[in-house]
Amino acid sequence: MKLKVFLLLALLLFVAGCTSYELKLEMLPLLRGINMGNALEAPREGEWGVVIKDEYFKIIKNAGFSHVRIPIRWSAHADLNPPYTIEKSFFDRVDHVVNEALRNNLFVVINIHHYEEIMQYPEKHKNRFLALWKQIAEHYKDYPNSLIFELLNEPCMNLTSDLWNKYLAEAIKVIRVSNPDRFIVVGPVNWNSVYALRDLRLPKDEKNIIVTFHYYNPFYFTHQGAEWVQPSPPVGVKWWGREDEKAEIDRELDMAVEWSIRNGKVPLYMGEFGAYSKADMDSRVRWTSYVARSAEKRGIAWAYWEFCAGFGAFDPIKNEWRIPLLKALIPETKL
Are the CB atoms for 181 and 208 separated by under 8 Å? Predict the structure, then answer.
C-alpha cells in the first residue's frame, strides 16, 4: 500500500509539473476510476436499485481500474440540530465499504453527495456542512493516504461561487486540523461545470488539492431519455465521432488544462463522465472512449459514471461487464 501511495503522489506531482498534454503510459493505470453510483447517495442504500456488494471491488480491480469514487449522502444520516451527529450505523456501513475497497488495493474518493438542502439554503446549512466534515475527517484521520476526501458534489443553485469559495476554504481548514496531509478534491459551482472553473478560488498555500469537474457534453446526447431531467432530451441522438464532435470535447478539456496551468498547475480530476443507457451502445462506446483517451492525453484523472445502474459499465443481473463499455474505458483489459 505504501508503494501505491508513493506512486499516486509521484503521479500528482508529475501532472502538476506538466506543461504539455502528454502523460507517461506506465502511469495510466493510476488514473482510471469508476463511481459506485446510486447506492450510498440514495436516501437509503438500495432505494435506487443498487446495494454495494463486497465482491464488486475485486471485480473492479481485476478489470484494471485504480480507484473508486463513492458518492455518499451524509446529510440523510445526520441530525438536523447541533452538533449534527452522524448515525453510527451509517458510519459503520461506510467504513465497511471503504475498507473493502482499500483491501482490494483501490484508492478511494469519498464525498458529500446530494446535499440538496445546502444548494437551496446555503447559509442555513453552512454550519451543518462544516460539522459533517469535522466528524468525517476525525473518523478517518488514521486511514492511509489512499483515502481521498471530496468536499461537495456539484455545488449549484443558490450556492453561488462567492459563497462556495468561502465555504470550501473553511471546510479545508476544518479537515486540516485532523488530516494535515490528506488529498482533498474541490470542484466549481454550476454542477462542477468546466466553464465554472474560472470562478473557483483555492486557498493560498494549500498543496494537497485536486480540482474536479464533471463532463457530460453534449448533454442532449449523454442524457437522452433521462427521467430525472425535465424536459427529458429526446432519444435517438447519436455520437458519431466526427471531427467537429471531437473538436468540441478537445476544446473544453483544453479549457480545464489551461485553467490548471494559470493556477499553479493544479492536478485535474474528471470525477464524472458517462452516457445514459437510452443512447445506442455504439455511440456510447465511441463517446466514452474518446473522452477517456482525451483526458488521459492531457494528464487528467477520471472516474466513469457509473458502475452498475443507468449508465453502468457492469450488468448486475448477469454479473458481468458490458465488454464494449469496459474496453472503451480500459482498452487493454484482459477480461
Answer: yes
Q: Which of 100, 272, 296, 306 is catalytic?
A: 272
Determine contact, residues 111/71, Cβ cutoff 8 Å: yes
- 168 closest CA partner among 124, 211, 120: 211
Q: Render pLDDT for 285-322 as a digit per residue (tens, 0 to 9).
A: 999 999 999 999 999 999 999 999 999 999 999 999 99
In the chain, the DSSP E strands lie at 32-35, 67-70, 107-111, 147-150, 184-186, 209-215, 268-273, 301-304, 314-315, 320-321
* Catalytic one of 150, 154, 296, 306: 154
pTM equals 0.92
Q: How far, in Å, CA of 118 to CA of 330, rounded? A: 36
The C-alpha atoms of residue 74 and residue 141 are separated, in whole angstroms, by 17
Q: For 172-194, what is the mean pLDDT?
A: 97
227 is catalytic: no
